[in-house]
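dude i think i finally got it to work??
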Amino acid sequence: MKRINAPLSEEDLKDLKVGQEVLLSGTIYTARDQAHKRLVEAIKNGKPLSFKLKNAVIYYCGPTQTPKGKVIGACGPTTSSRMDEFTPALLGAGLRGMIGKGGRCSLVRDAIKKHKAAYFVTYAGCGALLSKYVVQKKIIAYPDLGPEAIYGLEVKDFPLIVAIDSWGNNIYV
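look at this
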């Protein structure tokens, strides 16, 4: 099992292969549909973002309410294809990694290869288990979106599987 750290560089990803299990540590950002829409609008309009997108990792997740004494509530992955229309623009702006569940469209697969990024999947239906790998959570942007706001998560050994590597190889085909 390979260990990698976010933010990610092209160098970090070049040796990863489809199906490989990895443990990710560092800062990742949660974002779902509405946050993606706002990020792409900001990029198109030349507005600054609330976090550094270059080499960042976005986790398609909307965490549940945080129980007393915990860092975060359940934080399982959302179906990634819902973000496909926004992904090429984010990759073009420097996004390096994405975490979710399910396959991606050909436009996204091509953009991942073009920008030397990677798409990872993690365990669906295991949001409570995945919360144990989050050591810190803080709101970054769009608090009006509630659980779909963008959160910065500090993770330690977050379990992932490479679903699309930086060479464009795809676990789903």
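The chain has a mean pLDDT of 97.
im so relieved honestly
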